[in-house]
Amino acid sequence: MKKIFKILRNIFGFGVGLYIGGMINMLIINNGGEFIAPPEGVNPSDIESIKKNIHLYQPIHFLIPFLAHAIGTFTGALITSLIAVNLRMYLAIGIGCCFIIGGIMMVLMLPSPLWFNIIDLSVAYLPMAWLGWKLSCKIIAQN
Description:
By secondary structure, the protein is an all-alpha fold. It has six helices and no strands. Helix 3 crosses helix 6. The two termini are 25 Å apart.
């Protein structure tokens, strides 16, 4: 019975981490224009508008998507690791893998500079998931 409880709690933690991480990602994406306005004439909620006007984007405009991906992944992995009973690192990296799949899909859907794709895919997902797990280890050790 204890083993089933552990499995269910790990699955629950993974689901909660994915959900909250995704919500944070979208919250940052949807409100990022308040901090860094998109180029003139771009509707950031319309993917076709972004595709059509990607040439107007400056490096600063890529900060919000990068932060959304990194913070969403980090938070999702942290929450998953805090809820999980065991296998915390694997579950956190699993969160990173789910998010990197989304990142790869965005790279395929939206044209963006190669430098951004490289930085985003190599830094915002798996390293952030690992950092989320590391922070959870410190938090758990203090309790």
